[in-house]
Design goal:
The complex is a heterodimer of chains A (206) and B (227).
Chain A (H helix, E strand, L loop, with lengths): L1 E10 L2 E11 L4 E6 L5 H9 L6 E6 L2 E2 H4 L1 H4 L2 E4 L11 H12 L5 H10 L4 H4 L8 H9 L1 H4 L4 E5 L7 H16 L3 E5 L11 E6 L2
Parallel strand pairs in A: 3-8, 3-9, 6-7, 7-8
Antiparallel strand pairs in A: 1-2, 1-4, 4-5
Helix pairs in contact in A: 4-5
Chain B lengths: L5 H18 L1 H22 L3 H24 L4 H6 L1 H6 L5 H30 L4 H28 L6 H28 L5 H30 L1
Helix pairs in contact in B: 1-6, 2-3, 2-6, 3-6, 3-7, 3-8, 6-7, 6-9, 7-8, 7-9, 8-9
Classes of the chains: A alpha/beta (206), B mainly alpha (227).
Chain lengths: 206, 227
């Protein structure tokens, strides 16, 4: 269970949001919506602990994430608005490298399966990522979701530059994650096509 | 205290950085080219007098090695910062200082080891004798990892700042001065027949000290840069 307790965020002189309280239960999804500049990304970065809130705390299973640190990171898969993908490496190398960091040793076929699940054909697996399109690069980043076994997913605009078919694939993956008892927080402008009983919506007003 | 996966994560960082350097060989080789060019131009500028070259040799080679290291510092974290890989590195279940050690080691292998390996050849260009050449290589072997360690603190501190190249130089050069003095001093004292042990021990001490403190300082600076 992930809880945000009385979160406030200041960026420079500007107050982005004050006193946000929200609880995400296992098996549910929180979508964060709001205008541009309303602090959606900042909210998500506070949930990852990359950013410190002005006031308030984020609790994971009742404990402050700033105390849990690495124990919390072990539960977390974060995909930010930056892809975290190296342009000079191929999609397969990128996924192997990021899996190597988390200590999961994925075999080559497993990584290729993940890439195919997100709609990247075998043809592009061996190309440097820099020659791929924006949407394909986004899909390389999102393929990490198919390899992730972590219960908490924090996604920043996962559907940007994706076509409808890939959006559907990612939504499907989100659904199976939630069915397995996972949690997710998604910052998005689009509606997520999931049953309304698992979705909670948080609107931030800048 | 080792946790499962810590070693894997360290090796993962090193492997990825070396692979990236292989993909961009010309970028990675630039500091070494710089060193060779500087070391080759000095005898041309100063003149071929063997006694003069032997006197300035250790200092020139050490300054060139130091600047070569400085030249490559900008690349240590910038690319990772811009493409979001740094965020991912901070958010994995291993302590950040461990990953920093991996980054520094990779930087040293790319920018430091070639300098150490080339130094005997460059030393001979300046007419250093066998023993002085050996001391030069040894002093660089002890000194270049220290330069990488200290340099990454600076590189992490100026991450995301405009004109960061000059700022890194300003930040780390004062910290490089002791390494430079002990390094060049080791070779000079060996040439003077005094023995280089004292200077080499001091270089070793600098290395141990920077190994101990730099990863923590760099990790703290990276977290600040990501906020």
């Amino acid at each position: 269970m992930l809880q945000a307790v009385a979160l406030s965020c200041m960026r420079g002189e500007r107050r982005l949001f004050v006193d946000v309280n929200v609880t995400v239960e296992p098996g549910t999804l929180l979508t964060v919506v709001g205008e541009n500049g309303s602090g959606k990304t900042s909210f998500l970065r506070i949930l990852t602990s990359l950013l410190s809130p002005e006031a308030g705390a984020v609790l994971w299973q009742g404990q402050d994430i700033r105390q849990l640190k690495e124990q919390y990171y072990a539960q977390l898969t974060y995909i930010g608005h930056l892809n975290g993908v190296k342009d000079d490496l191929t999609p397969v190398e990128n996924l192997m490298a990021s899996a190597g960091l988390t200590g999961d040793h994925h075999s080559n076929p497993l990584v290729q399966d993940a890439l195919e699940s997100v709609g990247l054909k075998r043809m592009v697996h061996r190309l440097p990522t820099k020659v791929l399109s924006q949407g394909q690069r986004r899909r390389v980043a999102l393929a990490r979701l198919w390899l992730s076994t972590h219960p908490l997913w924090l996604l920043d605009e996962p559907f940007t530059s994706l076509d409808t078919a890939s959006t559907a694939l990612v939504t499907e993956r989100l659904q199976s994650h939630l069915r397995g008892g996972g949690l997710a927080v998604v910052v998005t402008h689009q509606e997520v096509a999931l049953p309304s009983d698992v979705i909670q919506r948080l609107r931030l007003n800048g | 205290m080792t946790r499962p996966g810590m070693w894997d994560a360290l090796c993962g960082v090193v492997r990825r950085d070396l692979l990236l350097a292989m993909r961009r060989r010309s970028d990675a080789a630039m500091p070494v080219f710089f060193l060779v060019i500087v070391a080759s131009l000095f005898p041309l500028g100063v003149g071929p007098e063997p006694a003069v070259l032997r006197t300035i040799g250790p200092g020139v080679l050490w300054v060139a090695a130091l600047l070569a290291c400085l030249l490559s510092l900008g690349r240590v974290f910038t690319a990772d910062y811009l493409d979001g890989v740094l965020e991912q590195m901070v958010l994995i279940a291993q302590p950040l200082p461990v990953l920093v050690v991996g980054k520094v080691f990779a930087h040293w292998v790319i920018a430091g080891v070639p300098v150490v390996l080339l130094s005997p050849l460059l030393g001979m260009q300046f007419g250093l004798d066998g023993e002085a050449v050996a001391v030069l290589a040894l002093s660089l072997l002890l000194g270049t990892p220290t330069l990488s360690m200290i340099g990454t603190i600076g590189a992490a501190l100026v991450l995301g700042v405009r004109g960061s190249g000059l700022l890194v130089a300003l930040l780390v050069l004062p910290l490089y001065v002791p390494v430079l003095i002990f390094g060049a001093g080791a070779v000079a004292s060996s040439l003077a027949g005094v023995g280089a042990e004292a200077n080499l021990s001091l270089l070793g001490a600098c290395l141990v000290l920077s190994l101990f403190f730099a990863p923590w300082a760099t990790a703290a600076a990276l977290r600040i840069a990501l906020e």
